[in-house]
Amino acid sequence: MTPFLMLPVPIQNAACLWALLICFGGIADAISLFKQKRYRYCALSALCFALGYFLLHVCREGTELRLKGQVDPFALDLLHQPAFLFLIFLALASVVCIGLYANVHRWKTTHITSASIKESVDLLPAGVCYYLEEGRCVLVNHRMNDICFSLTGRSLQNGAAFYEFVKGKKVHALSDGTAVSFRHRVLSDQGAPLYELIADDITELYEKNEELRRDNEKARQLAANMKTYGETIADTVRRQEILQAKTSIHDEMNRMILATKKTTDNQSDEQERREILQMWRAQALLLCKEAGVRKSRNVVSDLDTLASAIGIRLSWDGVPETESTQALTLFLSAAREAMTNAAKHAGAELLSIHIDESDTALSASFTNDGKKPLLPITENGGLKNLRERIEKAGGQMRIDVTDGFALSVSIPKEEMTNAI
Question: How many angstroms from the chain centroid is the CA of residue 154?
């Protein structure tokens, strides 16, 4: 059998390289196993390293023998051993190194490690950051780094400084169109404080909130316009009535002037002159009455105009005939509130108005064709204010949601200025 010393030099050099690779493999396996806290396997990898180093030393002694012609007697005895023994030890050490390497990677796939935790945290849609009291980051995922870069223009290096930057606002809009909200709390790591900062993605909620804010702004603007219109509608109707009265008086004056001229030219008898005088007296009394304020009774066209402006059609079953300022004003307020609720909450297209008027009260009911309320009606805002005004005037208000939303009011015609 050929001793190792008699092998060709290239084969001896290859054996040296093989032993060196076994040394490196044993070191790498030992480090990985030590991180996994598998100390028994660490001892096996150390033994593999020792074997590789021993074979490497023997190969080096063979090189020394060729170059200088003398070596240690023990090394010389080893070099005269059969070559196949060296190959067996090298193969055995190689199998152990490869087996330990495969075992390390198989263990990583079946056990939770710091690397697997970091990989899992990086896949979360929420931003995650854990930092110590001085601000040094312990764990930061990719999403939190992207959020920090979007808000500050730089990557996350100091967790405490970043929290001071974001804690002033509840919601932060990012450059990519998303919105996040931050949560912060203090944990304990072996008695030392550990700070947790989580960034939740609330893009959908933020968009819905913005849409709701815009709708509320439109509703407030519409309510303000309706309030202004309601406050001026009575005065507008009164001015129209006065204009019509003045036109009628003007036409009547022209007729009386022509009749007087005709009577004078024809030298009529005493009876005709008396009739002409009586007409002048009646006209004078009418002019005196016009000095007072006339009440509007025709509000149908004005409410129809207001309803068309907000997309509602009105169906009238009777019209108010009263001249009571109190009754008309409260009726207009109730109609405006019914139209507002029908358009804003019920999505209605038609509002039916039923009028029932007596000598002492004006009763009206408002029913829309919109969707039925799903929750009990809570009177606040306009409905609450309307009930207070009507009850202060001595009237009544009732809400019925049996077949939809119906508002009924009963308003006394007696003037009570504190209710208007």
Answer: 27
What do you get for the CA distance between the two ends of the chain, in Å?
Answer: 125
Following DSSP, what letter does each residue of 48-103 receive, concatenated? HHHHHHHHHHHHHHHHHHHHHS---HHHHHHHTSBHHHHHHHHHHHHHHHHHHHHH
Q: For the structural domain made of 4-110, what CATH number should be given?
A: 1.20.120
Candidate CATH numbers 3.30.565.10, 1.20.120.30, 3.10.450.50, 3.40.190.10; the one for domain 296-420: 3.30.565.10
Q: What is the pLDDT of residues 197-240, one digit of tens each?
A: 999 999 888 888 888 989 999 988 888 887 777 767 766 766 77
Q: Does domain 121-201 have CATH number 3.30.420.10?
A: no
**What are the pLDDT digits (tens) for 286-310?**
454 444 333 444 577 778 888 887 7
Domain positions in the chain: 4-110, 121-201, 209-294, 296-420
| DSSP string over 115-129 | HHHHHHHHT-SSEEE
Alpha-carbon gap, residue 17 to 15, rounded angstroms = 5
CB contact set of 297 (below 8 Å; sequence gap of 6+): 319, 320, 321, 322, 323, 328
The four Cα atoms 163, 164, 169, 174 give a dihedral, to 10 degrees, of: -60
Q: Supply the Cα-derived Rg of the chain in whole angstroms.
A: 50
Tokens representing residue 82 in the block: 């059969």
What's residue 70's pLDDT? 66
Check: CB of residue 312 under 8 Å from CB of residue 349: yes
Total number of residues shown for the chain: 420
Q: The whole model's pTM is what? A: 0.38
**Alpha carbon distances (Å) from 327 to 300, 336, 358, 364:** 15, 14, 12, 11
**Rounded Cα–Cα distance for residues 354 and 315 (Å):** 8
Q: For 156-295, list the strands marked E by DSSP.
A: 172-173, 179-189, 192-201
Residue type, 396: Q
